[in-house]
Write a structure and sequence with these properties.
The protein starts with 7 loop residues before the first strand and ends in a 6-residue tail after the last strand. The chain has a single domain, classed as Alkaline phosphatase D (PhoD) (Purple Acid Phosphatase, chain A, domain 2, 4-Layer Sandwich), CATH 3.60.21. Helix 1 packs parallel to helix 3. Strand 14 and strand 15 form a beta hairpin. The protein contains seven helices and 16 strands. Strands 1, 5, 6, 9, 10, 11, 12 and 13 form an eight-stranded mixed sheet that branches. By secondary structure, it is an alpha/beta fold.
Length: 344
């Protein structure tokens, strides 16, 4: 049966202790998912107390999970960053209590705004997979990039989480020559975000049976009106993403992203036959406290202080609460979505 509902989480490729897609009919459904991005291992990370208090069944790292920009091929800075992150007690507790899926963004890839031209991406990939304890027989060990997908929950309440890699294959964006806006949209159809192999994989994943799908991208997808990194800098690729959702019949898509150092909600009513909602959650401990950005797709005001995102699924009433939570776990932004409005 064609999948009925889909969540897309934006922010990059991810990691799980669970290596396969085999599901038990008695596996409990996912109802509480948390996510976030931009965690600097050199700074205090008190927000983990609130995340642990929320008691997520799954936590999604959207990228910049450490800050390890490198200056040489030995990648000493990135190695040290992972060592420091592993020594954070709250992170150890989260990894012990919660299923964690992770993708990367630029600062755990190895260089600010880096893409396919980054010369040390294979070394960075191995460090990433080792840090997240990805098994030797996992598909990511044998192919380029760190994209992957996992399905959770019984039939009728099944969530597929799709983690994209927006770094390993991404073409270089076009600079404006200014500090702000830094980049401008490039109409060149030869430019790519995902690369040919990942595109083919994604279309196949969107056709698999599921009732909800979480598709993760490290950089913003729907958001417009700014000159930082986003899918909108590659308009042909963003159009291709919308076409992939439409042509595969993938209903119920919700986008999750990070990167921006503030949190915000977005919606786009073009490109797909139903509204595409996006939640950007950033930063776990490197916030842009005075963020006042208001893009044309944005719902309400940005939230600048430390934050993490949550997805609460009510399978009985077929609703989803999308929320941003502050450092104490209090909801500061929210959007209730009825799955019936998402094309199902």
């Amino acid at each position: 049966m064609m999948s009925r509902f889909i969540f897309i989480v934006l922010v990059g490729a991810a990691v799980s202790a669970c290596a396969g897609l085999t599901l038990s009919p008695t596996e409990p459904p996912l109802t509480r998912i948390a996510f976030g991005s931009c965690a600097d291992q050199k700074r205090p990370q008190p927000i983990w107390d609130a995340v642990l208090g929320y008691r997520p069944q799954t936590f999604l790292f959207l990228g910049d999970n450490v800050y390890g920009d490198v200056t040489s091929a030995d990648m000493a800075e990135l190695k040290t960053a992972y060592e420091k992150a592993r020594a954070i007690p709250a992170m150890t507790a989260l990894r012990a209590q919660t299923d964690i899926l992770a993708t990367w963004d630029d600062h755990d890839y190895g260089a600010n705004d880096a893409g396919a031209s980054f010369p040390h991406r294979e070394h960075a990939k191995n460090l990433f997979l080792d840090h997240w304890q990805v098994p030797a027989d996992d598909e990511r060990r044998g192919r380029a990039g760190i994209y992957f997908a996992r399905a959770k929950g019984p039939p009728g309440k099944r969530v597929q989480i799709v983690m994209l890699d927006t770094r390993s294959f991404r073409s270089d964006p076009v600079l404006t020559g200014k500090r702000r806006p830094k980049y401008r949209p490039d109409p060149d159809p030869a430019k790519t975000v995902l690369g040919a192999e990942q595109w083919a994989w994604l279309r196949a994943e969107l056709r698999k049976p599921a009732d909800l799908r979480l598709l993760v991208s490290s950089i913003q997808v729907v958001a417009d009106g700014h000159g930082w990194e986003r899918w909108g800098n590659f308009p042909a690729e963003r159009k291709k993403l919308f076409e992939a959702i439409r042509s595969t019949g993938a209903h119920g898509v919700i986008l999750l992203s990070g990167d921006r150092h503030f949190g915000a909600l977005y919606a786009r009513k073009a490109g797909v036959s139903y509204p595409l909602y996006e939640v950007t959650s950033s930063s776990l401990n490197r916030p842009w406290r005075d963020a006042d950005e208001r893009g044309p797709r944005q719902i309400g005001a940005a939230y600048g202080p430390e934050n993490f995102g949550t997805v609460d699924i009510d399978w009985t009433n077929r609703t989803v609460l999308l929320a941003l939570r502050d450092i104490d776990g209090k909801i500061v932004r929210r959007q209730v979505v009825n799955l019936s409005e998402l094309g199902g």
